[in-house]
Amino acid sequence: MSEVPSGKGPEEPTPEEELLHRVEDGVVWITLNRPKAANAVTPDQRNRMIELLEEASASLLVRAVVLTATGDRFCTGADLRAGQRPPPPKPEGAPDRVIGDAARMIRTGAQRLIAAVLDCEKPVIAAVNGTAAGMGAHLAFACDLVVAAEEARFIEVFVRRGISPDAGGAYLLPRLVGLQKAKELIFFGDDLPAAEAARIGLVNRVVPREELIGVAGELAARLAAGPTKAIGAAKWLLNRSFESDRRTAFDEEAMAQDLVVHSVDAGEGLRAFAERRDPEFRGF
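The structure corresponding to this sequence follows.
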């Protein structure tokens, strides 16, 4: 629950402009747009991102997703001061917060967003333009590919606030960098430069800031031109791989192949191979 100061200035975007999105050549671009609030995510932004990711899964017109942000910071976590629902009525004498309140807020908030990225049936690319802290770092790590600007930093900020990690951090990090490195990152909360993040496997590519959107767009275009159902099945299998025993993993691999092999794209891929030409995948 990394919290940052917020507050609208006269030049801040309207609520409708705080989360930008467009579909272009089969790619959904989702852009956090609260630069003056360090792109801390409001509940409305979070819920809209979840909706857009769910829509991307269902739409045959969408074949890849890019998450990015405006300004010089990618996302500094959840903005806990923005648009919170009023608490339900309580009996006289009850404290403002009771056991279960914080857990419920995390389950229905940050964890839902991270799960929406992991569960999206289309590949999701994070184009990290600057600092990604707390939930913002985990939002990037949940993506299938991460492209970072050279000046980007990743911060497990929770220890600095005296709290334990949330937004899926203790689930994601050991799977990405191993248990000991995950403990180091979470226990100390030091800034992790983009180049070091790439060295330990958290980032796929580090590029100059001015090339970030172009490189992310090129990767997204390649994915959007690929066999969407096969890529989606591969994502599902890979995300489950650390939680399955060998027998289960092999069974799921076989079932996924059995489903995907009957897709239009699989037929096109096999014909193209036989005809010695490049395939033209359609996404279904």
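Residues 1-10 have pLDDT under 50 and may be disordered.
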